Amino acid sequence: MKGGAIKLFLVVVGINIFFAYIGLYFLPQSQSLPPKTIKIEKGIPQDELIAVGESIIFGKGQCMVCHPMKPETGMRAPAIATIGAEMVKSAKERNMPVEAYVFEALVNPSSYIQKGFENMMPPVHKPPTSLTEGELIAVSAFLQSKGSNITINYPDSVPVLQEEITKEAKKGGSG
Amino acid sequence: MSDVSVKKGLAKGLIKLTVLLGIGFIFLLLLGKILPAPTEDGYRLFPVIGSRVWVWIIAQLHLNFAAFVLGVPIFAVSMEYLSWRRKDDRLDRIAYDFTKLFTLAYTITASIGTVLLISLPLLYPKFIDHMMRILGPTWWLYIAFMYVEVIVCYYYYYSWHKMKDKKGAHVAIGGLLNIMGTIMLLITSAWVGYMTTPGGVSETGELVNRWQAVKTFMWIPLSLHRLVANVVFGAGIAAAYAAYRFIASETDEDRAYYDWMGYTSAMISIGFSLLLPGVGYLLGVEIYSFNEQMGIQLMGGFFAWLWVMQAILIGAILMFVNYYLWISLNKMPGGERYFKYVKFLFIIMLLGYAVWLTPHSVALSLDEARKMGTYHPVLGNLGVMAAKNTAVVITYLATFLSFAIFKMSNKESVVSWVKLGNALRGLIVVGSSVIMLAIGVYSYMVTSSVRVKVLSPIQFGIFFLAIIALFILDAKMFKGAKIIGEPRWGKMPERSQYALIGITVTFTWLMGMMGYMRSGGRQYWHVYGIMKDTSVDAFLPTHGYAAVITSIVTVIFYALMGFLFYGIMKLEKKGGQGGAKA
Where a domain ends, among B469, B489, B520? Predict the structure, then answer.
């Protein structure tokens, strides 16, 4: 009986070592660290601003969780590769400045949903994403760089961004 | 032990609970004064392993035991009810054995709960202060219900033999015990629900509406998921207990009984586990409704590889179950007629398993994402929900077939429409598989919304319809069937019992890992979007680290369970009633 109990316990330990081994050696090992606020200097060159925007899209913003890089069947959200051109088209349809449209898409996304997609994006200036003004502008510049002229810069675009944030706050927000 | 009178038993339970709570509060007060003040942002550091790992281990152990003491009473009472209606002593004995297990497990559960009660406010004072401000009254309600539950539980156990002629009333007490357990589960789920999908508070964390803070997106689906998972887990532990007793048995009579107990418990566990994808789906829908980003982050972001791990674990559980059932054919006179099907079932299981554990979108570096987009160019086709759901339902169907084969293996149908019945059975299996596969293929062509909200439920619906149809058909076909021979209970090789242990240990590991993922979904927030975690542990560790902690918790849990099982056997040997000698 004692032998049986010991064997059973060894089986339990063995199974647990096996699963820990899979976790340690078969799964990718990376940590998920809390995002840090990226400091953006006034007058930052456009290419640097776009690079910062790209790193936020793939990192702190967690945009790639829904947005694929290239268009795919059944994608949850518009593809990044052509998003700048799409935004210009939609802004024209809605008869609003492109800058305002891009900012609205980030801080007040439920106000206009592209055809074929659902209302699922959270306002990214609010928790949990909590992008700062500089970060929002960097992301917007990166999005514009995907198929349209880049008109957004830091800090000149801040007033337009603030206007969109105010509109969202007046609406009551959904964040 | 059951010689103790009901009054003495009740007093014992109440004293134990009061002493443990008293110890908890006294330690809390004393240590709060002795220990250095918390840091400015509200943390104390647990020595050596850190606060997070300490609370992680204690909370998971407490949760495992709580799941056990809440899950087992559900089917213990069901068994008692059946024994009462069918006048079946064997069912009464198994119900009593289950009751003995969970009653004795209460003490360990409460002891670990006391350690948690001391640890949380000392290590995370600011967070607990916030929780008390928002949900404080529910904590006091929890303590009140804990007392009621202990009274009902101990009464239920200690009155077992005294009330053997009042079975109806005794079953009703068991029902009350389950209601108490469910209320406690609802209260604790409200705490976790608030932390993950908070409501009823302002953006700065001020209480606006307490009921809204209780009634969060996650509350009911999480409670449902836990309720079902508790039954699966509780039954699994009972199967592990039976396996332990089977191996330790010295007589054929005991071996036969514990073989039957192990089989019954394992089948209850697996049967209820069929509900888990459905309630898990409900939970997922609510998380997505609360915050799409959190849902996707949990399903396909940092945790993507842990879903692969989940697939490995559930696949392993199903493999253990199938293996157990295939071995069990040996104890069924006539079982050898079905050996030829085993290899086909094995191939289906293996293929389904392979698809299931193909990863979906994975955590990528910037360079990798630039090169290949969100999905792997080749495996991405199998890693999506369309393929996985199909693999899951077909694997489950194969497992059900293993069970159905085992059930009918010692029988021969005597109805006049045997051929038609067999053809119908084939049609249901092949037809449902083809439809489920077709839906899987069609799922690639639709939007995620249609796939998730329409096609997946239809796929699972067809699977359930298929097994219900097979169940009814078999019941009709084998009504009054010729019995080739009675099952030779106890005539099982020892390795079959390791398969039972494998099922339960894997499920325990799975619970630990999924609990970590649910908790990790909050990322660097104590209360998602409301209260940031600013401690040194405010990051998600590597998957390997999480796997090691999960293994440590699981081994500690089974060591404690081993002591519990050993204690029960010692008490039985001392001459108490119940168990194998009842």
Answer: B520
Domain-terminating residue out of B491, B520, B549: B520
Q: Is A63 on the interface with B (CB under 8 A)?
A: no
Average pLDDT over residues B1-16: 79
Which residue among A1, A72, A175 places its CB closest to the CB of B248? A1
Cβ separation of B523 and A120 shorter than 8 Å?
no
Treating both helix axes as pointing N-terminal to C-terminal, what angle do B494-520 and A2-25 enclose, rounded to 10 degrees?
Answer: 40
Interface test with chain B among A66, A106, A125, by most B beta carbons within 10 Å: A66
The per-residue b/e assignment along B394-412, b for 16 or more CB within 10 angstroms, e otherwise, is bbbbbbbbbbbbbbbbbbe
B368-402 pLDDT per residue, tens: 665 655 566 666 677 777 888 889 899 999 999 99
Cis peptide before A155 (omega within 30 of 0): yes
Q: Do residues A164 and A149 both lie within one domain?
A: yes
CA separation for the pair B474, B409 (Å, rounded): 12
Domain that holds residue B488: 304-520
- As for how many domains chain A has, the answer is 2
pLDDT of residue A112: 92
Task: Tell if the CB–CB gap between A11 and B293 is shorter than 8 Å.
Answer: no
Going by C-alpha positions, the residue among A133, A127, A130, A129 that lies closest to residue A156 is A133
Which member of A1, A15, A74 has the closest CB to residue B446? A74
* A24: containing domain: 1-30
Q: Would you say residue B577 has pLDDT above 50?
A: no
* H or E element, residue A170: helix A158-171
Query: What pTM was computed for the model?
Result: 0.86
Does one domain contain both B137 and B225?
Answer: yes
Structurally, chain B folds into a number of domains equal to 2
Which pLDDT score is estimated for B506? 97
Residues A38 and A7 in one domain: no
pLDDT, mean over chain B:
90
* Pair B25, B163 in one domain: yes
Residue A68 C-alpha, separation from nearest chain B C-alpha, in angstroms: 6
CB contact under 8 A, B247 and A73: no
